[in-house]
Write a structure and sequence with these properties.
Elements lengths: L3 H4 L3 E5 L5 E5 L4 H9 L24 E5 L5 E3 L2 H8 L5 E7 L3 E6 H12 L6 H12 L2 E4 L5 E3 L2 H7 L4 E6 L4 E5 H13 L14
Antiparallel strand pairs: 1-2, 3-9, 4-8, 5-6, 5-7, 6-10, 9-10
């Protein structure tokens, strides 16, 4: 069951075409959509806060500034190459996120997420937007012998990437940001404008 503190005041009730009530967020995030969906369909198991596990067992963390080469290729930092390539023999999936960044997964880690997203209700507008974004942009890639992947022109245009990027670990995957957009995120966070997610008001380091 979802944590009431996380969802209280954050989810917007929606009724599906079958008459079933769905709770989708006013300001959707990937986690919130997962929570709303899991409350009515047992897709995520007993707890909607269970994040997808990296099949290879690595926990991706840390942030690195990288320059794309003239062909638009991203060289994965050496320390992360084995962790990214091991789960699926170098097969990766790159997709888009509404925050205007890209998400990079080992293929084996991405597939359960893809399967869950594909089960989002087709007639729900919020779910459809997420499906178009995550599934529609998804590209299967192969890490080459030099530890590089090609970031397509479409992906670079979506994320506003020209050359300089930030490669940011998120546990099961990496986020790929344009350096400009990343700095804007940091400015919002350090200014206090971003605040804390609902349910984490007591969180401290």
């Amino acid at each position: 069951m979802c944590n009431a503190r996380l969802t209280a005041g954050f989810l917007l009730p929606i009724v599906s075409t079958s008459g079933e009530k769905w709770d989708f967020p006013k300001k959707p995030t990937f986690l919130a959509v997962y929570c709303a969906f899991a409350r009515h369909v047992s897709v995520l198991g007993d707890c909607c806060l269970r994040f997808p596990k990296n099949i290879g067992g690595s926990v991706f963390q840390g942030a690195s500034q990288i320059n794309l080469d003239v062909k638009g290729r991203l060289a994965v930092p050496v320390k992360h190459r084995d962790g990214l390539s091991a789960p699926s023999a170098g097969k990766l999936v790159l997709t888009a996120h509404p925050d205007k960044c890209l998400l990079l997964y080992p293929q084996a880690t991405w597939e359960p997420i893809r399967d869950r997203v594909m089960k989002f209700p087709a007639m729900n507008a919020t779910a459809s937007v997420w499906k178009r974004m995550l599934i529609g942009f998804a590209e299967e890639l192969m890490l080459d012998n030099a530890g590089r992947i090609l970031v397509s022109p479409e992906m670079r245009a979506f994320a506003g990437i020209e050359k300089q990027i930030m490669f940011v670990g998120q546990g099961s995957h990496f986020e790929v940001w344009s350096l400009t957009a990343w700095n804007e995120q940091l400015s919002a966070l350090t200014s206090g404008a971003a605040g804390l997610p609902p349910g984490t008001e007591d969180f401290s380091l």
